[in-house]
Amino acid sequence: MDKAVIDAIREKEQLPDSMTDSEIAKEYKGTYTAARAAVSLNHKPLDQVLADAMGKVFPFMKKKK
């Protein structure tokens, strides 16, 4: 399992830092949580995609940062 996926699982599941990467990989291998974490690395959340699209169509609706 990639280190980035393990870090995403650790963050989303709020796992303690004392849990090693190999323990996380062993426990979460092949689970929905691991798949969701892997997908989240490559894709923006749907609400962000919608906000970006609306910002292109209606520039005045862009959120100010």
Helices and strands, with pairings:
Elements: H1 3-12, H2 21-28, H3 32-42, H4 46-57
Structure write-up:
- The structure is a single chain.
- With 65 residues, the protein is mostly helical.
- The protein has one domain.
- Helix 1 crosses helix 2 and helix 1 packs across helix 3.
- The mean pLDDT is 82.
Give keywords.
63% helix, 65 residues, single chain, mainly alpha
Biggest β-sheet: count, sense, barrel?
none
Q: Over all CA atoms, what is the radius of gyration?
A: 16 Å
Low-confidence stretches: none
Helix content: 55-70%
Number of strands: 0
Distance between the termini: 35 Å
Order of helices and strands: HHHH
Please give the count of helices.
4
What's the shape?
Answer: elongated
Structural class determined from secondary elements: mainly alpha
Number of domains: 1
The fraction of residues in strands falls at under 5%
Please sum up the structure shown:
By secondary structure, the chain is mainly alpha-helical.
